[in-house]
């Protein structure tokens, strides 16, 4: 009951972009302890371990993934509640949309930017996801993770190095749960910001299958604006296409392969380098 294992699970089922080959071992642990055992067992045997949440910022190659892919789901990973301090405790498998609604119902403001984000808490911590000028770690009080020695530890926010879309320690540690802070606020204020976020997202971002923003914003110019200026909106490679709504999204027109998406990413990066001297870094995890 503590975990479920599947062999050669198609990753296309676990990515919002709907692309990607099979994962050799797909494992869903229900408890932190089961998660720890899977990681330690694999590490002892030199088997590669990755963690995949909602797959909303993920691009898996068509050849798939060798080794173990852990998907935190069920049990403690899906729990989300308000504690006595008015903080919100959420497991790695909780969707940000869910966290946003738990906060809204409890009259806690500051989580409205998460309303339309398809990813879960684990992924948001891993990459310090953000929107509307707010980032995940702006609201983290502490985080529980499995460290590189295979121990479950609680880290206070001050002990965690955090950058724009990058949390270096989570390359080695795995986030299991976090405690978030917001501000008591009126339903009117929360609803207004919720609506602002929804309207902005609906009017600027595509609804078609994608992995969200493909590139990190470089210093010089927002990546979407740059791709737009390079004239790439609507350009395609097979069934993968740069969104007409937003230049930093690549959408799957149906049946696209990872190879096509990667080909398009390479073309854009080359063009940005050659024409503008800008080195684009991917935000999606490949
Ligand atoms: N722009 C264009 N053409 C385009 C797209 C954008 O000219 O095709 C311009 C916009 O008009 C605006 C500027 O570029 O002046 C920035 O665009 P936007 O406001 O859409 O924000 P962004 O920097 O592209 C960031 C996050 C998004 C997040 C939005 C909303 C990054 C890489 N992206 O986008 O996050 O949803 O802000 O707050 O930081 C994601 O992480 O997957 C993601 C989509």
Automatic annotation (TrEMBL):
<feature type="active site">
    <location>
        <position position="283"/>
    </location>
</feature>
<feature type="active site" description="Proton donor">
    <location>
        <position position="213"/>
    </location>
</feature>
<protein>
    <recommendedName>
        <fullName>Multifunctional fusion protein</fullName>
    </recommendedName>
</protein>
<feature type="domain" description="FAD-binding PCMH-type">
    <location>
        <begin position="19"/>
        <end position="185"/>
    </location>
</feature>
<comment type="function">
    <text>Cell wall formation.</text>
</comment>
<comment type="similarity">
    <text>Belongs to the MurB family.</text>
</comment>
<feature type="active site">
    <location>
        <position position="165"/>
    </location>
</feature>
<comment type="similarity">
    <text>Belongs to the MurCDEF family.</text>
</comment>
């Amino acid at each position: 009951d503590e975990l479920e294992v599947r062999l050669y699970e198609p990753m296309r089922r676990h990515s919002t972009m709907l692309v990607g080959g099979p994962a050799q071992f797909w494992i869903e642990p229900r408890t932190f302890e089961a998660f720890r055992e899977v990681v330690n067992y694999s590490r002892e045997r030199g088997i590669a371990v990755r963690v995949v949440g909602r797959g909303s910022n993920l691009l898996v190659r068509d050849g798939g993934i060798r080794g173990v892919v852990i998907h935190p789901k069920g049990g403690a990973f899906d729990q989300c509640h308000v504690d006595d301090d008015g903080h919100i405790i959420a497991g790695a498998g909780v969707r940000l949309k869910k966290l946003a609604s738990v906060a809204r119902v409890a009259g806690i403001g500051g989580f409205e930017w998460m309303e339309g984000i398809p990813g879960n808490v684990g992924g948001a911590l891993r990459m310090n996801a953000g929107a509307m000028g707010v980032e995940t770690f702006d609201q983290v009080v502490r985080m529980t993770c499995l460290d590189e020695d295979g121990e479950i530890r609680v880290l206070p926010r001050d002990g965690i190095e955090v950058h724009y879309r990058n949390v270096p320690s989570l390359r080695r540690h795995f986030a299991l749960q976090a405690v978030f802070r917001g501000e008591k606020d009126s339903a009117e204020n929360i609803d207004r910001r919720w609506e602002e976020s929804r309207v902005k997202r609906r009017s600027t971002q595509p609804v078609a299958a994608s992995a969200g923003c493909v590139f990190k914003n470089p210093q010089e110019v927002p990546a979407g604006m740059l791709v737009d200026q390079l004239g790439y909106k609507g350009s395609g490679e097979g069934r993968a296409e740069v969104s007409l709504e937003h230049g930093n999204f690549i959408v799957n027109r149906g049946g696209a392969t990872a190879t096509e998406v990667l080909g398009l990413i390479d073309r854009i990066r080359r063009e940005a380098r050659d024409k503008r001297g800008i080195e684009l870094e991917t935000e999606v995890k490949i």
